[in-house]
Amino acid sequence: MNNDLKNHWENIYSNKAENEVSWFQTVPKTSHQLINKLNLESNDKIIDIGSGRSRILKILIDEGFNNISYLDISKEACEKSKIALGDDKSKVTWNVENVLSFKPKMKYKLWHDRAVFHFFTNKKDIEKYKEVATKNISDGGYLVLGTFSINGPKKCSGLDVSQYSEQSLNEIFKSDFNLLDSFYIDHQTPFDTTQNFLFCIFKK
Asked: Would you say residue 1 has pLDDT above 60?
């Protein structure tokens, strides 16, 4: 694991409150709506990539999904997520590692990633992410990506990011996935600024 990157995120989740990061959402409405559109079964395997302290896990648990996995590079974020879930934490499989080195023992029906993929800025890491996702999504499964758009920020949390259009994101994944839907949406940060996101739904 890249220790500098891990330390960066451990520092953020150790020193900032839940609503002191730009990606915070009181209710992750867009992700929730997208997941509902997929008509998944309650026992389908779902993983939230770069979950941080996202509230999407609680929503999925409350809706009866019982095969949920969490992945984040930050142990601090993971521990705070467990505290937030209380007794429901036992309903989640917890993974703390860099997604690029992730080797799960299962394949997922849904791989949901809101705002991790755009942190990869070199071709090697982008290709590695694609390889890991493709390998670990079941045939007929879904890849839901939320990234900064070409009108979105160029940096986040002090790190450079990649910006995407529907065409450029599809170009990366089209060899293994079909693009089902895409749209742009503004995210309102806790600091009263907006960030333009691109969301794409792919099917393997």
From this structure: no
Q: How many CB atoms lie within 10 A of CB 124?
A: 9
Q: What is the pLDDT of residues 130-160, one digit of tens each?
A: 999 999 999 999 999 999 999 999 999 889 9
Q: How far is CA 182 from CA 34, 113, 151, 171, in A?
A: 10, 14, 15, 13
The residue segments making up the domain with residue 160 are: 3-17+29-203
With beta carbons less than 8 A apart as the criterion, state whether 156 and 176 touch.
no
Minimum mean pLDDT range among 19-23, 40-44, 81-85: 19-23
Output the six-digit token pair for 136.
């670990």
In a domain, 22, yes or no: no
Q: Which residue has the tokens 């960066």?
A: 8
Report the domain count for the chain: 1
What CATH number is given to the structural domain containing 134? 3.40.50.150
- Please write the tens of the pLDDT for every residue from 90-114: 999 999 999 999 999 999 999 999 9
| Residue 158 is assigned to a structural domain of this protein | yes
Structure tokens at 41: 């079964």
24 in a domain, yes or no?
no
Is residue 23 assigned to a domain? no
b/e 15-33 (16+ beta carbons within 10 angstroms → b): eeebeebebbbeebebbbe
Task: Tell me the β-bridge partners of 100.
Answer: none
The C-alpha atoms of residue 130 and residue 148 are separated, in whole angstroms, by: 17
